[in-house]
Amino acid sequence: MSTRQSKLTLVVDPSVVRRAKSYASAHQTSVSSLVESYLKNLTAEEAQDISTDPNSWPPTTRSLYGALAHLGDVDTDELKRRYLHDKYLHDQGLS
Q: Domains of the chain: which residue ranges?
């Protein structure tokens, strides 16, 4: 963290503030540090190509890595056809 800092005013739902404070306390940090870290990560991703190394990804992204690997090659046209069929025909009893 730099020695010179700026203030930032955020408007956030009170329940989110409570949970953020609880999370920060449990992780021995501050809400300000959490927000700063998030903003640094967010802007760093935009400033550079996203790494192909899953270990460098944020925890949520890393947890999703490989979640669809069991599907193998996916026929996106077939998925779209099924989705549209279910959305427009199945709901109307026309299937």
A: 13-51
